[in-house]
Design brief:
Two copies of one chain form a homodimer. Chain A starts with 5 loop residues before the first helix and ends in a 5-residue tail after the last helix. In chain A, helix 5 links the parallel strand 3 and strand 4. Chain A is globular. Chain A folds into two domains: 49 residues, RecR Domain 1 (Helicase, Ruva Protein, domain 3, Orthogonal Bundle); 124 residues, Dna Topoisomerase Vi A Subunit, Chain: A, domain 2. Helix content of chain A is 44%, strand content 12%. By secondary structure, the first copy, chain A, is α/β, with parallel strands linked by helices. In chain A, the strands form two sheets. A four-stranded parallel β-sheet of chain A has the order 4-3-5-6. Chain A has a two-stranded antiparallel sheet with strand order 1-2. The first copy, chain A, contains eight helices and six strands.
């Protein structure tokens, strides 16, 4: 679609680069910017720049951080003897929001994926081994995604860590709460039946 | 969700102000900005600012324009005797992309909506009347949305314009192409049967 407005077209293209945003949504978002208050758009643009400039990775765990260490690594009330390994910072926030876990984290920044050329050296693994050795860690929960790549990565890490004498676990697999059996996939059903629990 | 990162939280809030973007999508978009190349984010922010600064409304038809007149009003090959009235610039682009219409446009910037306090004075109507009188317009197609407000607005405008002796039409109503009868609403079915065409 040619708007005769190169700037608007450029904005649509920028929105299209965001995940899950197609042509139509990008167009709607671009038009909504035109309807917005000027001050609000300036603040939006400013925040984009600031976020990119000021947020980096925690030098200890790989989580997002505005300084050297992230808020979780700085928090002395956290249990320092347990680590939860995740693929990405976004996973960490979802797990942490549950309130169930009060230990620390370690972010891999990816999963093993030979087809995409991602090997162990490309993940934040060396630092994980060092932390387990040096921080007196007693348990590592490997919370990679329950996908083929996630499971492969999980097994790979478990093998390394077990040699260091640490307990290695992962979150339970089974029926998601609030789901309807009719719509749950066969793999999940199989796993849920295998791991059935006493009532 | 508290990220311990006020900037990231602010960015999520900005994304949430965009139409159709909820908390989860806003979070995914904000995280994707962190994964993006720095130069790309700067360009995105710059484009946001430029769009808001440089794009205004055509002084003749109300369409988006980077200068005094929009590209369509400046285009001398357009048929100057026919006008198509739309609610918003976004509607204009969708109609124009069909390639079916090569006349000019007039953008109302809204619809009559007494409940929201939008009356005739709030729409770009005075200029429409003046254009019909002064530009030798022979036909006005009123292409407001086929909603209650759109139809009310359409009838209101038609009444005014007919007094000026101009032909007033609107796009046909009926079954959308590629639709499935099973999923078409009753109002559309009724209209499609009333207005049935010979094969």
């Amino acid at each position: 679609m040619n708007y005769g407005l190169p700037l608007l077209k450029a904005l649509v293209e920028h929105f299209k680069k965001l995940p899950g945003i197609g042509e139509k949504t990008a167009r709607r978002l671009a038009f909504s910017i035109l309807d917005m208050d000027g001050a609000e758009v300036r603040e939006f643009a400013e925040t984009l720049l600031q976020v990119k400039k000021s947020i980096g990775f925690c030098t200890r765990c790989g989580n997002l951080a505005e300084g050297e260490l992230c808020e979780i690594c700085k928090d002395e009330r956290r249990n320092g003897t347990i680590l939860c390994v995740v693929e990405r910072p976004a996973d960490l926030y979802v797990l942490d929001a549950s309130g169930q876990y009060r230990g620390r984290y370690h972010v891999l920044h990816g999963v093993l994926s030979p087809l995409d050329g991602v090997g162990p050296k490309d993940l934040n693994l060396e630092r994980l081994e060092r932390r387990v050795r040096e921080e007196g860690i007693q348990e590592v929960i490997i919370a990679t995604n329950p996908s083929i790549e996630g499971d492969t990565t999980s097994l790979y890490i478990a093998r390394i860590l077990k040699k260091l004498g640490v307990k290695v676990t992962r979150p339970a697999r089974g029926l998601p709460l609030g789901s309807s059996l009719e719509y749950v996939d066969r793999g999940t059903i199989t796993r849920a039946l295998e791991n059935r629990e006493p009532i």
